[in-house]
Design a protein that fits this description.
Blueprint: H1 4-23, E1 27-30, E2 45-50, E3 53-58, H2 65-68, H3 85-99, H4 101-118, H5 125-138, E4 140-141, H6 144-148, H7 157-163, E5 165-166, H8 168-181, E6 186-190, E7 195-200, E8 212-213, E9 215-218, E10 221-226, E11 238-239, H9 241-244, E12 251-254
Helix pairs in contact: 3-8, 4-8, 5-8, 7-8
Length: about 260
């Protein structure tokens, strides 16, 4: 006669193994029709892991727009030696968010993914952190010189989206653009040798993660820093001082 105790243990182990396999394969997938995975880091398919869940997203991109947005055709924000550069950066955020369908589509897709996975408010700290993980996982850091042939080039959000890469300013602007399109008030924090996005949050939950809290006020509202530079994950509201350098040079430019 078989030992019931052994049989029960085996059954329990089998259930646990299945549970582990299922749990490790949780994927939230959103794919629009007629997408092509270019497989070169600038493609139409994105995937990343956030809080242990794998997310995938497909997006139709028109790469012919790169020729349209050539610097010879579209006026740029003044270079880094201009006093008006910082105040004009935020205009890039609002222009593409308001006028480009692909930015709106990407924003809507991210919102649907977040709703499907968490079913919670998309105007809070959690969603801002979710979009930050999307940027840091799917876009590469690259210097302007190697991408655009000039030492200092202010890319439009659509250019960064199409190229799949950008420097700190470019990635910050793309991130801020996506949040602005989702209904947030956003800003760009400009330092002497760095730039990072920021987002206005009505409430903020502090976590013990080893990074420095990043918060600035604008019109009596609190804006929290968002580090988009790829690397070790730094949550919304925190900053890596090794990247920033002199924090006393910070100036916040907001859309409000």
């Amino acid at each position: 006669m078989p030992d019931r105790g052994v049989s029960n243990i085996k059954a329990l182990l089998a259930v646990l193994i299945v549970a582990v396999l299922v749990g490790s394969a949780v994927i939230v997938y959103l794919h629009n029709a007629d997408n092509t995975d270019r497989g070169d880091g600038t493609g139409d398919s994105y995937n990343w892991i956030y809080q242990g869940v794998e997310f995938r997203l497909g997006l139709n991109l028109n790469y012919n727009l790169l020729a349209y947005y050539d610097p010879d055709n579209v006026e740029r924000v003044p270079d880094s030696n201009s006093d008006s550069r910082g105040s004009n950066i935020i205009d890039y955020v609002m222009a593409d968010a308001d006028n480009l369908d692909v930015i709106k589509q990407l924003s809507e897709s991210l919102i649907r993914l977040y709703h499907d996975a968490y079913g919670t408010d998309t105007l809070g700290q959690g969603y801002a952190d979710f979009v930050l993980s999307f940027i840091r996982s799917n876009f590469n850091y690259e210097l302007d010189f190697f991408m655009y042939g000039m030492p200092d080039y202010m890319a439009l959000p659509i250019e960064t989206l199409l190229k799949g890469a950008g420097d700190r300013e470019d990635l910050s602007v793309l991130y801020a653009t996506l949040l602005y399109a989702s209904g947030y008030d956003v800003g760009i924090i400009v330092y002497k040798n760095h730039a990072m996005a920021s987002v206005k949050l009505d409430s903020f939950e502090i976590s013990n993660n080893g990074y420095h809290l990043s918060c600035m006020e604008h019109n009596s509202e609190k804006y929290y820093g968002c580090e988009t530079t790829p690397g070790a994950y730094c949550p919304v509201g925190y900053a890596d001082h090794d990247l920033i350098g002199d924090i006393d040079t910070a100036i916040l430019y907001a859309n409000e």
